[in-house]
Amino acid sequence: MRRLPLLLLLLLGLGLGGQPQPDPPLGAQCLEHDCFGIFWESHPFVEASAACEKGGGHLMTVRSTVAEDAIAVLLQNRSGRLWLGLRLSHRCPDPAQRLRGFQWVTGDGRTDYSNWEPSTGLRGCGERCVTVSRELRWEERMCQEPADGFLCEYNYRGSCPHLPPVEGLLVTYATPFGVRGGDFQALPPGSVALIPAMGLELLCDEAGDSGGLRWGRGAPGAWPCRLANGGCEAACGEEGGGGPHCSCPDGKVLAPDGRGCSSPCAGAPCQHHCVVADSSFVCMCEEGYQLAADGSSCKDIDDCATVPRLCEQVCVNTLGGFECRCHHGYEMVEERCQPISRCQEAPCEQQCEDVAEGDGYRCSCSIGYAVDPRDPSRCYWHCNDSQCPAECNKYGQSCECPEGFILDEGDKGQKVCVDLDECNMDYCEHNCTNHPGGYQCHCQDGYRLRQKFHCIKILPGAEEGAYSGDFGPQSPIPSRTPPKVGHLHPGVLVGVAVGALSAALALLALGYHLVKKCCRPPATMDYKCSGPHEKEMGLQPVASSCAT
């Protein structure tokens, strides 16, 4: 088992090199971060614990074989029971656990080591403490009973090495917990090294900005180079008759204590970055900033003002940079401003396109459909030709045509919708223009259209209304005055009968004309479309009225 080679040990005698301090340990040893002291004083557990705390430590914890080795060296084969920092408070021991339910005075039960005496153990439950013997065995003991002594532990953040031996120089060390001697291998922070021959008193303390521990003194500059290199971090020299002095390698300068070496940037007032240049420094700024006139602080560069057209639409300067933003109605997409699409929320029935004006969108329809003028978001079936394919079910038995068309068969037997010439039905009082799916009435000069079908004469002096000039000036239609009702002559009765027969013949002729138009090929139809006039339409099933 490795013991002493792993430890930085020192056994100290009482009062070496000076007056004895109150209640110092009779022996001590130090590791890199911990020191242990042995006290041969008979006290109960609580009093022993208080004595350790008074010196800045606590009763010793033994968590590994390294701590066990330290105890062996401190005991020096002397018999006796010494308190350890292990205690059980008002409960029963648990032999199944490594510490049997006991806890260290530090408040935890963490350990990698235990060494209980197998043949001893107090009966029952209740408060009890632990001592260690010369054989390094742990024994349970009533806390109120005095032990032969106790072991204290002192924890530190690091240590200073012992000063290298110099012939003819005596060095004495004093620790913060009261031990004095000359053979330490490691010293905790706060320790003092006394060198009477040089009139030096050195302190183990932090070394500048490095955070490490090293020997130093309050006065700046080096001491004689033969002792620990004069305290210099780099080189120590005494040439020139100016006494010992320290020097540093290129790129570094002497620290304020005159012994350590540091970068020229250490303590430099640079706001952002510091660059070493020929044992000096230069301040530099991060991207988006420029060095101010004082040479150390940094000020923001207004990128939006210095770089033209930096952003597509709006540029906003920020500290150390800038942000590109978009105008109202646009959004940033892959670093470009794109119009915000309103079509996802638009109520369009078929198609939609984004536009800059209005609501930001426009509804449109697929081929064969037109926008409903009564509701621009909806579409209706629209045929803009004299003949269009009919819409039939998958069996081809039920077909439909837009309003203003009639169902027919094409040259190859397919179902088609053929425009109905409403102008042949005398819907208009004066003139009529047929177009696919509808028609439009016009009035002669001196008349204006009323209720889509009728023409009324424009009175002299009255405001002239809208009228169609497609047909040029035409003679007015004479008004027809209905005959007065009086005594009917027998000849009149004959005339009425003849008139009724004539009207029947006229209706029969009109029906024949419609049937003839319906049944003739679409190519032979004559259309008078003067422009893409559209009519409000709806779908209606129309049965063919032609004989095959």
TrEMBL record:
<dbReference type="InterPro" id="IPR051505">
    <property type="entry name" value="C-type_lectin_domain"/>
</dbReference>
<keyword id="KW-0597">Phosphoprotein</keyword>
<dbReference type="GO" id="GO:0016020">
    <property type="term" value="C:membrane"/>
</dbReference>
<dbReference type="GO" id="GO:0030246">
    <property type="term" value="F:carbohydrate binding"/>
</dbReference>
<dbReference type="InterPro" id="IPR000152">
    <property type="entry name" value="EGF-type_Asp/Asn_hydroxyl_site"/>
</dbReference>
<dbReference type="InterPro" id="IPR016187">
    <property type="entry name" value="CTDL_fold"/>
</dbReference>
<dbReference type="InterPro" id="IPR057350">
    <property type="entry name" value="THBD"/>
</dbReference>
<dbReference type="InterPro" id="IPR001881">
    <property type="entry name" value="EGF-like_Ca-bd_dom"/>
</dbReference>
<dbReference type="InterPro" id="IPR000742">
    <property type="entry name" value="EGF"/>
</dbReference>
<dbReference type="InterPro" id="IPR018097">
    <property type="entry name" value="EGF_Ca-bd_CS"/>
</dbReference>
<dbReference type="Pfam" id="PF07645">
    <property type="entry name" value="EGF_CA"/>
</dbReference>
<keyword id="KW-0245">EGF-like domain</keyword>
<keyword id="KW-0325">Glycoprotein</keyword>
<dbReference type="InterPro" id="IPR009030">
    <property type="entry name" value="Growth_fac_rcpt_cys_sf"/>
</dbReference>
<dbReference type="Pfam" id="PF00059">
    <property type="entry name" value="Lectin_C"/>
</dbReference>
<keyword id="KW-0677">Repeat</keyword>
<protein>
    <recommendedName>
        <fullName>Thrombomodulin</fullName>
    </recommendedName>
</protein>
<feature type="domain" description="EGF-like">
    <location>
        <begin position="300"/>
        <end position="338"/>
    </location>
</feature>
<keyword id="KW-0732">Signal</keyword>
<dbReference type="GO" id="GO:0005509">
    <property type="term" value="F:calcium ion binding"/>
</dbReference>
<feature type="signal peptide">
    <location>
        <begin position="1"/>
        <end position="17"/>
    </location>
</feature>
<keyword id="KW-1015">Disulfide bond</keyword>
<dbReference type="InterPro" id="IPR015149">
    <property type="entry name" value="Tme5_EGF-like"/>
</dbReference>
<dbReference type="InterPro" id="IPR049883">
    <property type="entry name" value="NOTCH1_EGF-like"/>
</dbReference>
<keyword id="KW-0472">Membrane</keyword>
<dbReference type="InterPro" id="IPR016186">
    <property type="entry name" value="C-type_lectin-like/link_sf"/>
</dbReference>
<dbReference type="InterPro" id="IPR001304">
    <property type="entry name" value="C-type_lectin-like"/>
</dbReference>
<feature type="transmembrane region" description="Helical">
    <location>
        <begin position="492"/>
        <end position="515"/>
    </location>
</feature>
<keyword id="KW-0812">Transmembrane</keyword>
<keyword id="KW-1133">Transmembrane helix</keyword>
<comment type="function">
    <text>Endothelial cell receptor that plays a critical role in regulating several physiological processes including hemostasis, coagulation, fibrinolysis, inflammation, and angiogenesis. Acts as a cofactor for thrombin activation of protein C/PROC on the surface of vascular endothelial cells leading to initiation of the activated protein C anticoagulant pathway. Also accelerates the activation of the plasma carboxypeptidase B2/CPB2, which catalyzes removal of C-terminal basic amino acids from its substrates including kinins or anaphylatoxins leading to fibrinolysis inhibition.</text>
</comment>
<feature type="domain" description="EGF-like">
    <location>
        <begin position="419"/>
        <end position="456"/>
    </location>
</feature>
<dbReference type="GO" id="GO:0004888">
    <property type="term" value="F:transmembrane signaling receptor activity"/>
</dbReference>
<keyword id="KW-0654">Proteoglycan</keyword>
<feature type="domain" description="C-type lectin">
    <location>
        <begin position="31"/>
        <end position="145"/>
    </location>
</feature>
<dbReference type="Pfam" id="PF25444">
    <property type="entry name" value="THBD"/>
</dbReference>
<comment type="subunit">
    <text>Interacts with ITGAL, ITGAM and ITGB2. Interacts with thrombin/F2; this interaction switches the specificity of thrombin from a procoagulant to an anticoagulant and antifibrinolytic protease. Interacts with ANGP1 and ANGP2; these interactions significantly inhibit the generation of activated PC and TAFIa/CPB2 by the thrombin/thrombomodulin complex. Interacts with PF4; this interaction enhances generation of activated protein C. Interacts with HMGB1; this interaction inhibits HMGB1 inflammatory activity.</text>
</comment>
<keyword id="KW-0430">Lectin</keyword>
<dbReference type="Pfam" id="PF09064">
    <property type="entry name" value="EGF_Tme5"/>
</dbReference>
